[in-house]
């Protein structure tokens, strides 16, 4: 006898449909799983056998062969446990083939028959929807996250007994169409806001522009001037995630570990400078997403940028330009989104006090040059805003920051983002993402602004990329001011932020 069930496995930023084919034949009692399964798949034999017996189901006393098709695709993970168990129940005639029509099954089985959550559930739900699967049975703990996807019946399952009773019509689990609005929120604990920072008006302005237009920014200054605090405070300016953005962010994070959360806040990723290249850009045996993808639609914060290995920083060049990363490995090639805002900090020299009036610099010229050589020209060319953070005067520390500064800035930023969405007719497009061939048609400059830009490009020897980045930053400044056209003051401010750090 042959039985077929449907399951899914996350694959890159999507998922693959897997047909679970079971055959029961005469012979000595045996249970084999074939189809190029990894160790976690082969171990499903013991999990499924124990789960069925401990749930008081009959386990066939003959030769069982389960094939996971397509057989040439390597399978890994515990996604197929539930589908294999249902398949065996059909082979043993405890369930009928018509009981499982147009349904798919995913989930890891415990030895007692209960279901554990799996990773990548949003990938699986989206793939099931694309394949026109009418009903997807999944672990109960995965349901809150999966339920953010509309258009498919999701049946949350606690254990094998409950799914059996549902399929036999004894105790129906009603599929719900109510979408979960929110779940546990992820954010920085005790994150500061601009209301907590005295002075630093120029750096605050630069960060507001960076957030409004999705621009990359580099803050440079002596130790203790508040660069890290300013970067973390920028989180208070980020707009709320839209529903499609929540799905994209949660989908990426669910690929790394099983989680019940729907991510409500934009991610703020802070990899340490000792992190590996794989953890930063993604990869490994199964080409998993790295920090740059986990920062998608949020912020990637690199503190003390020159302390990272130069080869690691050079690996960021392509994602900063394309807003995605393609990872090629021997057995698979996947592409993950990486549309993040880079906020980086650095000291002006190894000792940190170059240009500081309060402390003399102890570095030699050769040490300073070697320190700055860690940041290549092509990498710096991909950064939109350069800002020097100076040591604040003691008198400024005793002043009370302006009331509701963060709230007021956030209102301006939301208006600027709204103007961009209206301009590009897309909820995910920012000024920084406009391709060069569309800039002149979309980002209009006044005559005086165009004259100024042409002169500045010649005097400052701007690269073609820098030339267009200045226009994009100026467009964001104009959006913050509520102007429809890029005027000369907007361009002047953008050019000032384009000046390289000392």
Short key terms for the protein model shown above:
3 domains; Rossmann fold; 502 residues; Ribosomal Protein S5, domain 2; 5-stranded parallel beta sheet; elongated; 4-stranded mixed beta sheet; alpha/beta; 21 helices; Helicase, Ruva Protein, domain 3
Provide a short characterization of the protein structure.
With 502 residues, the chain is α/β, with parallel strands linked by helices. The chain is 37% helix and 17% strand.
Give the CA-based shape.
elongated
Q: What is the first-to-last residue Cα distance?
A: 76 Å
Number of domains: 3
Multimeric state of these chains? single chain
Summarize the main sheet. Answer: 5 strands, parallel
The number of distinct β-strands equals 18
- Which blocks of ≥5 consecutive residues have pLDDT under 50? 177-189
| Helix proportion | 25-40%
Strand order of the largest sheet: 11-14-17-10-18
What's the average pLDDT? 90
Indicate the CATH architecture of the largest domain.
3-Layer(aba) Sandwich
The name of the CATH superfamily of the largest domain reads P-loop containing nucleotide triphosphate hydrolases
What's the gyration radius in Å?
28 Å
Give the amount of beta strand, in percent. Answer: 15-25%
> Under the CATH scheme, which class of the largest domain?
Alpha Beta
**SS class:** alpha/beta
Folded structure, characterized:
This protein is α/β, with parallel strands linked by helices. The chain folds into three domains: 2-167, Ribosomal Protein S5, domain 2 (2-Layer Sandwich); 194-404, Rossmann fold (3-Layer(aba) Sandwich); 434-502, Helicase, Ruva Protein, domain 3. It is 37% helix and 17% strand. It has 21 helices and 18 strands. A hairpin with a 4-residue loop joins strand 12 (282-283) and strand 13 (288-289). Helix 2 (44-54) packs across helix 3. The chain starts with a strand and ends with a helix.
């Amino acid at each position: 006898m042959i039985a077929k069930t449907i399951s899914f496995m996350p694959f890159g930023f999507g998922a693959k449909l897997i047909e679970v084919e079971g055959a029961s034949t005469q012979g000595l009692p045996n249970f084999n799983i074939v189809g190029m399964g990894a160790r976690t798949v082969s171990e499903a034999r013991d999990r499924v056998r124990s789960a069925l017996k401990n749930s008081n189901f009959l386990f066939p006393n003959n030769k069982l062969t389960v094939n996971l098709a397509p057989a040439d695709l390597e399978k890994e993970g515990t996604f197929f446990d539930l589908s294999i168990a249902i398949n065996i129940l059909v082979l043993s005639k405890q369930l009928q083939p018509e009981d499982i029509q147009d349904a798919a099954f995913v989930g890891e089985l415990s030895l007692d028959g209960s279901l554990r959550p799996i990773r990548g559930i949003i990938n699986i739900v989206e793939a099931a929807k694309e394949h026109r699967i009418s009903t997807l049975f999944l672990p109960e703990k995965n349901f809150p996250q999966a339920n953010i996807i509309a258009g498919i019946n999701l049946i949350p399952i606690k254990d094998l007994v409950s799914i059996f009773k549902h399929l036999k019509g004894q105790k129906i689990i009603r599929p719900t169409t109510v979408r979960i609005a929110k779940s546990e929120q992820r954010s920085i604990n005790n994150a500061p806001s601009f209301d907590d920072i005295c002075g630093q008006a120029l750096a605050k302005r630069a960060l507001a522009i960076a957030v409004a237009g999705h621009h990359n920014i580099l803050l440079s200054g002596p130790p203790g001037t508040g660069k890290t605090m300013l970067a973390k405070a920028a989180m208070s300016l980020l707009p709320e995630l839209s529903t499609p953005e929540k799905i994209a962010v949660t989908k990426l994070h669910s690929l790394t570990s099983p989680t019940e959360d729907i991510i409500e806040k934009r991610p703020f990723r802070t990899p340490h400078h000792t992190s590996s290249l794989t953890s930063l850009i993604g990869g490994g045996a199964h080409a998993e997403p790295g920090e740059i993808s986990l920062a998608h639609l949020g912020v990637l914060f690199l503190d003390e940028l020159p302390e990272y290995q130069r080869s690691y920083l050079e690996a960021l060049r392509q994602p900063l330009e394309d807003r995605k990363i393609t990872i090629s490995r021997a057995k698979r090639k996947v592409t993950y989104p990486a549309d993040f805002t880079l906020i980086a900090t650095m000291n002006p020299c190894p000792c940190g006090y170059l240009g500081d009036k309060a402390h003399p610099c102890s570095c030699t010229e050769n040490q300073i040059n070697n320190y700055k050589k860690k940041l290549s020209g092509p990498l710096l060319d991909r950064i939109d805003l350069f800002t020097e953070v100076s040591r604040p005067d003691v008198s400024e520390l005793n002043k009370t920051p302006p009331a509701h500064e963060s709230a007021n800035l956030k209102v301006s930023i939301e208006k600027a983002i709204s103007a961009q969405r209206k301009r590009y007719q897309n909820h995910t497009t920012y000024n920084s993402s406009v391709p060069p061939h569309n800039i002149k048609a979309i980002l209009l400059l006044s005559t005086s602004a165009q004259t100024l830009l042409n002169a500045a490009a010649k005097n400052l020897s701007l690269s073609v990329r820098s030339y267009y980045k200045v226009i994009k930053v100026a467009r964001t400044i104009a959006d913050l001011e509520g102007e429809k056209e890029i005027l000369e003051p907007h361009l002047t401010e953008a050019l000032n932020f384009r000046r390289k750090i000392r």
